Amino acid sequence: MDTPVKNQLSPATPFSSKFEDSPVFNFISNLSPIEPVKTRLNDHTFNSVNFSSPPSLFASPQISSFSETRFAIRRHHFSDPTKPDSSRSENENNTSEGVSVAVQPSNLRTEQLGYISPGSSAREVIDEPLTDNLELAIELPSSFKYDSGSPSSSVLPCDAINTDSVSDTTNTQAQLVQSVTVNSKERHILFEREKYLRRINRVEQNNEAARHDWEKKISDTDNLFNFDSPVTGEQPEGPDPRTVDTGSMSFISDVLEDDLNKFERPESTDPVGSCEHYVMGEPCKESKGTGDMKETDQTPAVLSSTLMDKLVVNDSNDMVDDKRRKGIQSSCKPRPQLHRTIRRRCLDFERAGSHEKKSSCECSGSSAVAIQSNSKVASVQNKFVHSMGGSFRSSSKLPGVGLHLNSLATPTEGKVVDNESWASESQRISKRVSIRSCDSLIPRETSHDKFSPKRSLERDLVPYDNEGQAIEEAHQTSTYVDEEFDSSSPQNKRRKSEHVVENLACKRCNCKRSKCLKLYCECFAAGLYCVGSCSCIDCLNNPIHENTVLETRRQIESRNPLAFAPKVIKSTDAVAEFGDETNKTPASARHKRGCNCRKSSCLKKYCECFQGGVGCSVSCRCIGCKNTFGRKDGECLSGAEETEFKESKVETLGEKNATDVETVGEPDLLKTPSEIGRPPYQQPVTLRGKPSPSPQLFNRQNPEKSKVLCGQLKFETRFEVIPEDEALEKMESISQETSGLKSGSPDSKWVSPPHGHGESGSSLNCWRGGRKLILRSIPPFPNFNPPSHH
DNA sequence: GAGTTTGAAACT
DNA sequence: CAGTTTCAAACTC
């Protein structure tokens, strides 16, 4: 799984063969930067690769941060191949962004090739096409054989060719025109040139400054590749790749520096400024020692930025936000190199942002946040990694299992994150990802295992039944944001997913006294690092204080293993195991612990159930519940309240459903607990806002509430929701891990029924049984599929 | 933007 | 476990 292409492609594969068919020559002949984009269609090779790995939701903590970091980097590279998709899609969709489009592909390629590709970036547009072609190198390790084991080397030759002699290119063109057989000669020529470049590069190695700097990076990179990276095979095939790479890198770095010097002078203007939001957290990481990742990431950014400078006119430069510098940034002292790096990143980000969508992202924030995900979350990881490298690039994409990213969502913008939308949609995610996305979530792969944001994320990831659902949900989540778009078109779906990502990325806190190390802090609670956009004070929830964060998380989880678990649990089961009505009770989604509202009537976002877009349940201890997503059973309403509740439902549902609501939905609601027998969960609303396909399985009011939810999902944010079975699994594992803490743990609120009265014997037993039993007592909620509507 | 309200989280 | 305090988001003006 981890070694997708490596094994598939024989190192012995003739270099020539690769390029024979490759569009490289075509590219050279055409010298058109745009052309490569077309060829890019082949880039999907990695898309099919399944990166998912067993999710140890509550696995033991302490995975080495370094390894994760590297892993992240690896992912970054690895995921890159998918970028072409997005870029391509962007091209398809966003013709207006022509220039940026041209540039982006190169970036993507660069990333794919790994870090080396910076050289390509230095080369400007012309190189990109080559890079694209070389992109095949990823798929074709053989190419690296000639590259001396370094992707960069592959890039270099291209540069050399383009740079050194245009005439050669012309000749190549002619040859291509003549016949295919000539290709071998050309390849040979290329190879020779490549060698030549290497020599030059080695000479360049004498440049200590550049060399030293890049060497570190390279060494890190090498380590990364060696470390379990699928890409590994691609690289080291060649002799002493490192040496060569180093030289290449130094050479490239020099070139880049020159270019940057030329173009970055006006840094005070846009590029830099715009970058800042993205860069925010990065410096910190470096200072902190997570430099591996940072530096590695930066490379692509560098390339992209360089290209940006040259080719792209920055259009989104007004994003400078001082707040972003807050916290992490403040502590970081940008070194020249670093600064440059940052700038590059910014540029890269800007590029992504600008051409992806000039989102006027309010997100003042920047970056650095971190969620860490594990293997299972591979796709997410990739995305995150990408974001690290330069923002949430829509480019990042991994096919795959749709996952549900719970904790990432912002309360205000949609709690539910559809990972699948990320995975499948992310491929299509386009430029619309606003800079805002960088605000927050950027998954850092650094490590914290169990307590790490990564884990949180991982935990929160839940597979979706199908992409369509995911998309739909994603759409629902972001509908209010995205209403301008027509949901029908693919492009729009893409945009939807973008919004989802956006939403995910936008957690911000405003903590003043908790130092963002308590669950009060939304960022922390979501397993994220605070970012520059946060308004927190004395924030310790950042990579710099990683240890503190981890320790705190550990403590919190020791008290409450589910503290960082999704707050809303969704049931994916379509059929109830048991025949009793209790089990039939719809519980498509519910708050894991229930709310305790007293004054808000569960009609405001103070109520976590309401905020999460789910109805209240037996778990809730709320008073006067009027949750329009579904009141908890047994909630007695006064006449006025009843009327009010009906009205609210009617309003939500609209006129067409009003009648049904009153006639069908109300009866149970009006019953007292004793009358109803207090079904465990009554949450009638499905996450997807779809009515139950089979009325029998549901409470009478369910369908209506589902409709209500449908209506409200567009406007209300939801908590992360995960399939019930998934949640059950998690909880079971937790329970096992933390056996003995049941009574005393904060979970007790969740575990034990808040209301002792009216519990049925079966449910009571369930409650006594602990989490596992409790969950079982929750009747699985039918899986709402679109067809049900039809 | 400041102040208030609210309920979760944390503490005792 | 219950009561209280702390806290920050949500809300109101």
UniProtKB/TrEMBL annotation:
Region of interest: Disordered: 77-104, 668-701, 732-765
Record flagged with keyword Chloroplast: no
Keyword Nucleus (UniProt): yes
SMART domains reported for this sequence: CXC
Coiled coil stretches, renumbered: none
Keywords of the record: Nucleus
Alphabetized GO MF terms: DNA-binding transcription factor activity
Location in the cell: Nucleus
Start-end of Polar residues biased regions: 733-746
Family from the record: Belongs to the lin-54 family.
Name of the protein in its database record: Protein tesmin/TSO1-like CXC 3 isoform X2
Annotated organism of origin: Ziziphus jujuba
Lineage: Eukaryota, Viridiplantae, Streptophyta, Embryophyta, Tracheophyta
